[in-house]
Amino acid sequence: MAASVVLTVGLTVSALPSAAADASQLSRKEKATATGKDQPHEDLTPAEREVIDVTMAPRDWEALGKKKATRAGNTLPAPRSAPGSDISPEAGARQDEEAGLQHPGHIAQPSDYDEDAAEEWPDSDEDDEGARAPSGGLGKSPVQSLSKQCLAESQAKTKHGNIFHRFLFCRDSKVRFRYFTPTPYGKFYRGKVDATQRTVSQASKGKNGIRFHRAYTQFVAGSISYSFRLPIDQVRAEYIKLGSRSTCQQGPRVCDVSGSGFQGQEIKDWKRERPWRSQWFYQDITNKPGTSKGRDQLVYHKWRVEWTTWGTLFPIVPLRRHVSEYRQLRCHTVYNKYGSSEAQDGCAFSEKPLMMPYSLSNSETKEAVEHIEQAVTMPDTTYPLSAPPGTDNPPRKEIPGVWGVGPRAPLHRLQIMDPRRAANESHKDQACEQRGRYAKTGIPPAKQPGSGQDCDEYPFQSTLEGASNREWDFSVKAIKSDHNQKAGGALGKFFTKNVVLPWDDNLLAPANERFWVHFVR
Length: 521
Hints:
Blueprint: E1 4-7, H1 17-24, H2 28-34, E2 52-55, H3 58-63, E3 75-76, H4 89-102, H5 144-152, E4 162-165, E5 168-183, E6 186-203, E7 205-206, E8 211-219, E9 225-228, H6 231-236, E10 240-248, E11 255-257, E12 262-266, H7 267-270, E13 281-287, E14 299-311, E15 322-323, E16 327-334, E17 344-348, E18 355-359, H8 366-377, H9 419-432, E19 453-458, E20 475-480, H10 481-497, E21 516-520
Parallel strand pairs: 1-5, 2-5, 18-21
Antiparallel strand pairs: 3-12, 4-5, 5-6, 6-8, 6-9, 7-17, 8-13, 10-12, 10-14, 11-13, 14-15, 14-16, 16-17, 19-20
């Protein structure tokens, strides 16, 4: 079910004589209805919508449409930013887990990490006649194909919205505006506007020198309808403006919003069907590394969208607006990608759990994936054994890293040159060859790799939880070489596509990037 919000904006103005004339045309029963006593949640429940009422003097209604509308991009000024506290990497990571595990959004599929199937942000809008996009690969409109996939998922119609993947968020919110005029009988109900407010946000991921995400907003053309009691109001309604803006909770010391006023246009313009690229307003939310921590200069910030209604010739003061729930981003500057000294700046919707998808039905990686499944679901059947054969009551093995299975603890990537990778390799080799510390518990000679086989290990050699980790157990098994290599290649693509940051010893464990394996059947 779509999340619905009725917006109630209040404007306190004194009643004018002509308001009584409007009300005098109504019967006693109509007056009761007009003043809101029986009005108007006829199709709503309190849990579905929240109302924003717009109370306007009659002169404001008469002014609608009399003066040529200002250009579509007219904005209301932004109020002064409220100061906020910084989010530490540790606190940000905890909030990631709380929100992300409750609302994981799109579950990644293996095809998401195929080289040909994974879509990068284009250098130009796909239907913008070849115009160059702004820095960071983000255009004047969101990437159409991925945005439509995101919006098609049921999560997009909830109050939380849909974190489709690490770099794309979307939400559709049903909105109702109700409009009133003060009269001697109370507030005279004039009518309502229903619409769907749409937000799509893309996070930057490139060598642009700026850490930001771009929030695109619109009121969906086909969703806008209105109903007013008086015929003249039905005509004037087309000149009412609907608009949105983005805000950052922490204020300018941590993040800035470009063009931070409300951006919108009149209903008659919103209702026009136009090409995808010309339907949107956008604002950039830039994250500042000055308050960062750790090797990768991590900064967390919270962002949301607000929306309201106003007129070309009448401001709504005080301005009251509906606000969406905050979504959290983590921004970073990576200097160590593949040993390069060149910085990789970007942001990600970090609330979404990172899951590496492996298909149990993929014939090209089948033996590698089956090994992971066995290691987590039946760890005591794997090598190395937890104790030499014949030991009474050997301890049970615990192997982490698979979503919803076993200990459910996550994995953490290691840097390519991290010495713990070499230690993992050493432990794996000893267990595979039944020597060293695993001389009595490793793979027996009859089950060791033969021609065309590799000795596969899980957790992965590239993770902190690998074979040398003292807190967790591990598994080794002889599998087909090509299965092992293709499964490893998929993991490498997953790290690259999602900008999975390696473990940083300078940060507490909760602040380090974590991921899970997710089985796809």
